[in-house]
């Protein structure tokens, strides 16, 4: 893919959106990781910039849409990252060296990336089966990784991912966020699978079902007929608010 240099004049200076996009598939909590469109072992969480005429939340929504094709998904701002030393200069220096960006013009094109940036962290939850991955000028590839098998990431992206994961765990019981990883209609077994995967523990089914129903956020629908009628589980969806 041809390298496209972003024009810094189009964006809010030295502020980025770092969005950790979570999905659930085959009993695994997964995160979307970009292989950056340069030579070298440069992997990153999903990153973008804020346009001068754009709200922060709209920017985060756009950054997710550009990679997944989905709009209006669940987004939660969880932390701002503003340490003076975020290894930005080291990353850019290595990128320039590996990619033989030797001319003054080429290096100047990347100079604004080396300056200190403040990052606003969001995490996103979505139905992975609805995603249609699309590459931007920043991405060589996009890959879903198991949360425990993510490759080494650039700069402080591993720290950002860790903080996003912690926030997800803290938020699930209070904000009922886990349901956003499921399709529109789901069974109670699907919900239990999500919780057991995220918290890495098993739940007693009757107790778990009672706990979930006491939240009073689900609407029971028709049964999901897959075999014997007396064993068919009910389908649920999130109540309209």
From TrEMBL:
Check the record and name the InterPro entries matching this protein: NUDIX_hydrolase-like_dom_sf, NUDIX_hydrolase_dom, WH-like_DNA-bd_sf, WH_DNA-bd_sf, WHD_NrtR
Per the record, the domain of life is Bacteria
Molecular function, one GO term:
hydrolase activity
**KW Transmembrane helix (keyword) present:** no
Keywords from the UniProt entry: Hydrolase
**Any idea where the NrtR DNA-binding winged helix domain is?**
178-237
Kindly give the SUPFAM superfamilies that the UniProt entry links to this protein.
Nudix (SSF55811), Winged helix' DNA-binding domain (SSF46785)
The answer to keyword Nucleus applying to this record is: no
Specify one Pfam family: NUDIX
> Which Enzyme Commission number(s) are on file for it?
3.6.1.22
Cited Gene3D superfamilies: Nucleoside Triphosphate Pyrophosphohydrolase, Winged helix-like DNA-binding domain superfamily/Winged helix DNA-binding domain
Q: Nudix hydrolase domain: from which residue to which, for each copy? A: 14-117
Identify this protein by name: NADH pyrophosphatase
Lineage, uppermost ranks: Bacteria, Pseudomonadati, Bacteroidota, Flavobacteriia, Flavobacteriales
């Amino acid at each position: 893919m041809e390298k496209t240099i972003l024009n810094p004049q189009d964006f809010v200076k030295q502020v980025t959106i770092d969005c950790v996009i979570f999905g659930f598939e085959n009993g695994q909590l997964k995160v979307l990781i970009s292989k950056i469109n340069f030579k070298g072992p440069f992997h990153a969480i999903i990153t973008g910039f804020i346009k001068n005429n754009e709200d922060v939340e709209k920017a985060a929504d756009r950054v997710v849409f550009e990679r997944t094709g989905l709009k209006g998904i669940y987004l939660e701002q969880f932390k701002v990252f503003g340490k003076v030393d975020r290894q930005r200069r080291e990353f850019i220096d290595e990128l320039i060296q590996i990619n033989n960006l030797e001319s003054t013009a080429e290096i100047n094109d990347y100079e604004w990336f080396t300056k200190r940036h403040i990052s606003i962290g969001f995490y996103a939850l979505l139905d992975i089966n609805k995603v249609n991955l699309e590459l931007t000028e920043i991405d060589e590839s996009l890959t879903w990784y198991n949360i425990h098998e993510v490759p080494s990431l650039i700069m402080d992206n591993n720290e950002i991912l860790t903080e996003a994961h912690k926030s997800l765990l803290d938020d699930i019981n209070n904000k009922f966020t886990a349901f956003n990883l499921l399709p529109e209609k789901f069974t109670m077994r699907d919900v239990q699978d999500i919780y057991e995967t995220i918290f890495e523990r098993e739940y007693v089914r009757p107790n778990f079902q009672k706990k979930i129903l006491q939240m009073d956020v689900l609407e029971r629908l028709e049964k999901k007929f897959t075999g014997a009628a007396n064993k068919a589980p009910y389908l649920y969806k999130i109540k309209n608010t």
